[in-house]
Write a structure and sequence with these properties.
Neutral Protease, domain 2, 8-stranded mixed beta sheet, 12 helices, 4 domains, alpha+beta, Immunoglobulin-like
Length: 631
């Protein structure tokens, strides 16, 4: 979901459900939903309708079958396995006593007949809306249920970890209107001289908040997109306001969906719902919502369309198992905007997006990507944290890997592992660690659970063609993260020679580095490519560096260039003479040498991959290892 203005959804309804209700809901798994609704484009009123739920009992026995439904909606009857049963309304629930009690593994089919008008239908606190487009004049009824608004318009179970295997959405609407929903349009039936029924069916697993519809006077603008990895073109079906200027205004942006489908399929794996469709249905709100196979959007821009489409992989196919881990949905979809610009935009557009996201995140000193209060919509859907800082976490992971082939392979493997189901932070971390052979515990502790960003300062000097550099850092929210461990790039501008880019690793409040034979230095720039979340407080030349004998013995180990490409020579700067060894990620020694100078060069003969370079001083003192990437 992406909003251009702050629209927060209902959470107090869900919060009112007591623990007993949550326990009852967890006694069964949903297999199938069939929504048969009578709705109109002129109000949020739900006419006589019914929802069928097919489920399996998972508890040893089930004494009370429970659904969530707002108390303002009237329940006319409940039928379970063909038998009409009594029911109770308690808060925003329907409770159906079962006698005899079905046991574990029993399949049940429950039909709830209901009707009514949800309260506050003009408020953003409801899961169903009716408004007139201020730009185009079209009247629209639509739903938007994330995170807890589904109970406002249909009897459901709002638990993320319980996906239905499939869903049918049948919508009876006024003649002359169209009703969009998830899945494939199986048919349109004429019910009378005044009403038609749209039959949408989806056979993919789906979570409750991605079930949706919209009804208005639409035109159907559809086309097909060729994407790699699937056997036939994918239908792109768009319900656009039936207004002479609406489609001409947005057609160019809508057509870009085909290119986005192709580019995302190359990087993330084939569009997961290709057997049905991808599409859009317009509604008058300021943003978009990634309803599975049929996104609801208020308008069309490149970034909004890219964001919602990326959600089809990250959020719809693989869904966060807890709102605490909304990063797995929103952070990934937001980074999809940057990936889309890299693929289809210009380098300057991609850089501008990155700088804007970076500056937004560091505009405040605190804030964690991890959501502590899952009943607070503003916390869950924080644009600065869940979206933009979440996106930057992926950007920093990509920076550490220094290998886009590995980065996107990790994303594809994550989707292959958790697609059609749910994932938590630990699941993604396990995929990342298995692919790299490294622990990422510190990274997530500092950047995901921790608050803030790095505040960096640099002092440098050049003496006789040798660069001396001290990097100092502190966390912007030092009570949470005093300092960070991260690689950082330093661009060195040299007189009469091309600029060079050093990749250093910092893990202490202050660290010293030296680079021998670099030439005359005109200046340095910290993180010029915006790979990390940082504020650079100062960069100053300090003419005392490299002069005092104590400093000449203190520089740290460094290597550059890194990554080291085929044919390039690696320069290794050493604190003093000593032993240099290169290991693979399993700890095997692949190359050894003894260095009797502060700077040595090595032309590699190793296969592409990630390696560890370690120095041991002549007196046995050990320096922190450095990761070396050979793409």
């Amino acid at each position: 979901m992406r909003f251009t203005t702050a629209i927060w959804l209902i959470s107090f309804l869900w919060a009112q459900q007591d623990m007993a209700t949550r326990l009852l809901l967890n006694k069964y798994d949903v297999r199938f939903w069939w929504l048969n609704l009578q709705v109109t484009h002129t109000s949020t009123q739900i006419g006589p309708s019914w929802v069928l739920t097919r489920l399996v009992v998972t508890a040893p026995s089930l004494d009370t079958l429970t659904f969530e439904l707002h108390s303002a909606l009237t329940v006319d009857s409940v039928v379970v396995n063909g038998q009409k049963l009594n029911f109770l309304r308690r808060g925003h629930t329907i409770r159906i006593p079962l006698n005899p009690q079905p046991t574990q593994g029993t399949l049940l089919e429950a039909v709830v007949h209901y009707r009514g008008t949800p309260p506050n239908s003009q408020s953003s606190l409801s899961g169903i809306f009716n408004r007139q487009s201020p730009s185009w004049g079209n009247q629209v009824t639509w739903t938007l249920s994330q995170p807890f608004g589904a109970l406002s318009w249909w009897p459901t179970k709002q638990i993320l970890s319980d996906k239905a295997d499939s869903v049918w959405t049948f919508l009876s609407v006024p003649m002359g209107t169209r009703a969009g929903a998830v899945g494939r349009l199986e048919g349109i039936d004429t019910l009378s001289s005044t009403r038609v029924r749209f039959r949408w069916k989806s056979r993919y697993p789906i979570v409750y908040y991605l079930v949706a519809f919209a009804v208005a006077e639409y035109v159907d603008y559809s086309f097909y997109a060729q994407i790699p990895g699937v056997s036939r073109p994918v239908l792109v079906q768009n319900y656009i306001y039936n207004n002479p200027q609406t489609l001409p205004t947005f057609k160019g942006e809508i057509d870009t969906t085909a290119a986005l489908l192709r580019e995302f399929s190359i990087r993330f794996g084939p569009y997961p719902f290709w057997r049905e469709k991808y599409g859009h249905m317009m509604a008058p709100f300021s943003g978009g919502m990634e309803h599975q196979t049929m996104t609801t959007q208020g308008f069309f821009t490149f970034l909004l369309t890219a964001h919602e489409l990326a959600h089809q992989w990250f959020g719809d196919w693989a869904t966060c198992g807890s709102w605490q881990d909304i990063w797995l949905n929103e952070g990934f979809a937001t980074y999809g905007e940057y990936i889309a610009l890299q693929a289809l935009g210009t380098p300057s557009q991609a850089r501008s997006w990155l700088i804007d996201a970076h500056d937004y995140v560091v505009s405040e000193p605190d804030g964690s990507v991890h959501v502590s209060d899952t009943l607070d919509d503003a916390d869950i859907f924080s644009s600065r944290l869940s979206y933009n800082k979440g996106a930057y976490l992926l950007h920093m992971i990509r920076f550490r890997l220094q290998n886009d082939s590995v980065f996107f392979a990790i994303l594809r493997h994550y989707l292959s592992m958790y697609g059609e189901g749910n994932a938590w932070l630990g699941d993604f971390r396990n995929v990342l660690e298995a692919a790299t052979g490294q622990s990422w515990a510190d990274f997530f502790q500092q950047w995901y659970y921790g608050e803030g960003h790095i505040i960096l300062s640099a002092r440098w000097n050049e003496v006789n063609g040798n660069l001396w550099l001290i990097l100092s850092q502190q966390g912007s929210q030092s009570s949470s993260v005093p300092y960070f461990s991260t690689p950082v790039e330093v661009s060195v501008q040299r007189q009469g020679r091309p600029d060079t880019l050093l990749r250093l690793f910092i893990s202490q409040p202050s660290q010293a580095f030296s680079v021998a034979g670099i030439g005359t230095v005109r200046g340095i720039q910290i993180d010029p490519n915006y790979w990390i979340l940082r504020v650079v407080s100062s960069v100053q030349r300090d003419i005392t560096l490299g002069v005092r004998s104590s400093e000449t013995r203190s520089p740290s180990l460094f290597i550059y260039p890194n990554p080291l490409r085929l044919g390039e020579t690696l320069t290794i700067g050493l604190p003093s003479e000593g032993h240099v060894a290169i290991y693979d990620l399993h700890g095997r020694v692949l190359h050894e040498m003894y260095a009797d100078a502060l700077s040595i060069e090595w032309r590699h003969t190793l296969a592409p991959g990630a390696y560890i370079l370690r120095w041991t001083g002549a007196q046995g003192e050990a320096e922190n290892q450095r990761f070396l990437v050979l793409p």
